[in-house]
Structure formats: structure tokens, C-alpha cells
Amino acid sequence: MIIFSSMALAVDNPLSDPNGGFTIFLGNLDYVFNGYFIVEMLIKIFTLGFLFTQRAYMKDPWNVLDFIIVNLSIVSMLMTALSDGGGGLRSLRALRALRALRPLRMIQRAPQLKLVVNALIAVVPDVVNVLLICLLIFLMFGIICVQYFKGRFNACQGDRYDVLSGDADLVALMEAPLPWDQLSDTQKGWFTTTPASAAVPKCDRNLLGSDDASSVYIGDGAAGDDELWNVVGASGATTSRMMCACMGASWDATVPQSFDNIGLAILTLFELTTTEAWVDVMLASVDAPTEIDNQPIRDRVVIWCCFYILFMVIGAFFAMQLFVGVLYERFVDMQKKMKGASVMLTPQQQEWLEAQRLGLRFKPMRKPRPPPDAWGAKAFNLCTAESFENSIVSCIIVNTVVMAMQYFAQGDSYGSALELCNYIFAVIFFVEAVIKLMALRLRYFEDNWNRFDFTMVAGSIAGIIFAVVGGGSGGGFINALRAFRLGRILRLMNGMPKLREVFNTLAITIFGLINIAVLLFLLMFIYTVMGVQLFAKVAYNEDFNANANFRGFGVAFLTLFRFSTGENWNGFMYNLAQAGEGLVGADGEDLPCVADPQYHEDMCGFNDKIDCVQLNGCGEIGRASCRERV
Known about the structure:
Blueprint: H1 2-11, H2 21-48, H3 61-86, H4 106-109, H5 111-122, H6 124-149, E1 154-157, H7 159-164, H8 168-175, H9 185-189, H10 205-208, H11 225-232, H12 240-247, E2 250-253, H13 262-273, H14 278-287, H15 304-337, H16 347-361, H17 374-383, H18 386-403, H19 412-440, H20 448-469, H21 476-484, H22 492-495, H23 497-508, H24 510-535, H25 553-564, H26 569-578, H27 620-629
Antiparallel strand pairs: 1-2
């Protein structure tokens, strides 16, 4: 039932038609699953007791996990029913995302997963110690960053500034702002309009200050004066931000990261430890101005590069690697206490592992004998000679080099020569297989490497036949058969003991790797379902696009897998949070974002037809601005 309910969670999508038959079916199915799990929980409680008996239900941590998940499902079900009924609790539908925790119940029922989780729980105290060390490092560097960079990662931007920034005098003035009385008539023309407009408000000495710093804001009632003064503040000093506002441009952040307070500083430094965007933040720090609300200056303090390099060495390469070292040391100690047994394997898997180790150590091999006929005896003497095996290994290496010599736009004669070489090697390996079959007869197929060789030869011959019969056509199928020959290089392991030992080690640890991989897949599955439920309706925004989004389980799973490699997870995060800002409708009008767009058959996402209307769901920042408008 847990597996079936997880499958239902995977196909459930907020973008589906709420009145569609499949959506109604999934909703009813969810009630069935919840009812089944509630009955299961009640039976266990009545059988074991709830809390005060010796084998009480709540005394088992795994039962506590089941209890929490089932009760979250009940709350989600009730909230969904209430929101559908009255509409006042519509925002609480996000609780439906908590159903994604349901697959966690698989851990208790899968011994291999339970074993891995228990091993990870055992190392939590050591991990906490490392976390405290990392937090201390982040705190020290964070205090320095807040001291020097708070409020300084902003600059004048926008279309109007881009038009005027080609003037070197304007750029110099923005970097070193002057009071109104010290501006030339040309400079004043950059900031004033007559009459003042909402886009470019009237600016004079009342806003930009005077050279003796004695002028204060009078508020003469000119259009835009009051609004602009509220933006720049009554500090009495002329700043780049004032000039930017007078120019009609926008004063925005240069990077999404911030050191405005110690909390944001620690989060930013943690982001940098993943090696994402650390160069962008470093360059923003190098250009950071001396005073807040002033324009950044290119390469103002280059020495900050050394500061960030030092942090990456200490915070990323040293502190983060402590986790690996602590986990390894802890697992080694646990393995010693278990007398060499693996902490990631069940007893049955451990027995299989020991059997494989014994088999590799004392692998019985029947001594081959030559066949009675003369031709078979000659073939046996040939294939058992060391020079024969060395010759075949040399052919494999040369064949691999020949296959690697192809390149784009190669000449016809060059390509024909390579193809001829491949045919010659195919004949050589075919003859090798025939000689070994003559020498060993049916015993040839008793060895795994011989079976592998025979498969490679059969694939190569099939590729040649298809290429000749099809006149060189066949497209991807022929290319796949040709690439199939590359597997022959694995035969080198049979003749290299050290390489074979590494391969055998990998083979006997496969169960431990599978146990960890299944747990990782379970976590990825849970986060994928939650991502679809929470962010399926959010509008596209730069990195949050058709190639990386949460509008379906498949693409969401691939997106999270990409993030697990560290690839642009932070850029996606910031774009997702800012989604919904600056949306434009089909006729060029501003399109306000909606916190929870309702189903519309002509809107993209709900129905991805060619002429669909842009989906206008808000990200977190967009939702905040939406609430402000309300």
C-alpha cells in the first residue's frame, strides 16, 4: 500500500484539471490510503498499547514516525476538505505537500534501509561537533563581511542608466557624487526634467543637497519630490542612490547574496562553500563602495580576493571535508565493534559478501585438457600460450586507439582506412573465438570472460553484416553496434591482476552501494513530490524554465538530480523566489502574479498548447509583493 500510495503521489499534479476524472480518482484514492493507514495505526495501538505498556506503540521510534506521518495526512485531508468547501483556507492546501513524507514509512519495513538510517543516526553526535566548528568559522568570517559589506551590494541599474552610462563623466559622477551646487549645467541636465514626471522626478538642491551641507528638504510640492525623498531618506548627504532615483533608473542588488546581517552572512557563506557563485560575491566585494548607497567602483579593493580565497580554503576545502573524515572514522569504529562486519549490510547480505570473498580467494578452476583430435590439440596449444594472449591484448589496445581516431569532417579515404582496420580486428577476434572453441569445445562457455568475448564478437559481426546489407545506412542502430565493440577493452582486466582486484572489490560492495542508493532515491522522491506540490504553478523566470522546473514529476526529479551535483542550485533558488515579477501579458500589458492561479485551460502549464497564455504564479518574493498590493 505504501508503494501504491507513493505512485499516486508521483502522478498527482496541481496543474491537472480539478474537475477531471483522473484528478477526482486520485482524490478518492487518497482517502482510501489514508483510511487504510489510520486503521493500521489504530490496530497497532490497541494491540501494543499507546504509551504506558511495556511494548507501547510510542516507545518504538519508527512507530513514532508512522504516527506523525499518519496524523499529518489526517490534518492535510481535513484542511483540503475545508478549503474546498469554504475557500477561506485555500492557502493551507500547501499542507498537501506533507503527504510526500508517506514514503518514509518504507524505511521501517525495509531492513536494508533501516540499517543505513540507524548507521547515519549513530554518527549524528560527531556530525553535530563538526557543524559547530563550521558554524564558528562562518561566524568569524560573517562578522567581518557584515562589517564591511552590509548594504553595499547595490548599484544603479536599468534601461535609462544603461543609455547614459556610456558617458564616462556620468559614471565618474555616480561613483563620486557631488552636491547640486557643484554640478555643471550639463550634469544638472542628466537629473532634471521640466515639468517633473513620475518616471523622472524633478531634482534640485532640495533633494541632492548643497555644497555647504546646510540645505534641507523643503517639500515644495513638485511632482515626485515627496515619493523620492521617502526612498532616499533625509540623511543630508548626496549619494549615488539619490542621483540614480533622480535619473529615473533603479537601485538594485548587484548579486542575490547579501551580508546585511549575520544571519544572511552565514547563509551566504554556506552557499559559497558549495563553490557556487563565490567568484561573483568576491568581485562584488572587490567593487563595494566605501559608503552605503554609493555606486560600486571597479576593482576598488582587490585585496578582498585573498580574503575569499582564504575562506574557500578553510571553509570549503577544510571544514566541509571534516564531515567525510568524521563519518569515515566513525564507520570504521562501528565496523571494528561488529568484528569486521559492514554496518550497511543486513545479515543475509553479509553472508553473501563473505561467500563472494571466499569464492574470489579460493576460486576452484578445472585444469583444461586438450581435445583428442589433432586440430583441437594444436588449437589448445596455441590459445594457452602466453604469447597468444599478449598478442590479443595488444590487438585490443590498438583497436581501441583506432576507434578513438575518428573526428568530425574527416576525409573519405581516412574514414575508409579506419573502417578497414576495424574489419581486420573483427576478423582477428573472430578467429580467436574460433580457435578457443576448437580447443575448449563447450567448456569455452564455462568461463565468464569467454562468454563476454563471444558476445563482443557476435556484436561486431552483426554490425558488419548490417552495414554491408544496408549499404552503410542504418543510422543509430549501426552506430550502437559499432560502439558495442568498445566493451572489449574490459577484457584488459582479465590480464591485469591489480585492475581485476579493484573491479572485484567494486562487485562485492554492490549491496552496500544499492542500500545507500535506495535511501537517496527515497529522499529524492520525497523532495520531488513536495516540489511539484509547492512550485508547479510558479511562472518561469530565467534558470527556472522549461528545462528545470517542478511542473511534473519527471522533470522535477531530473532537476533535483542536477542540483545534487551542485550545478546552479542557487541560481535556480533565487529565480524561483523572484518568479512572477515583471510578467508581461499577450498584449504587452503588465501581468500581476497570483499566489495560487486557478485552473485555466488556455494557460501554459495547465495546457501546453502553442498559443497558451503565460502562467502567472508567484514565487516567494512575488507572493510578498502580491500581499502588499492587497
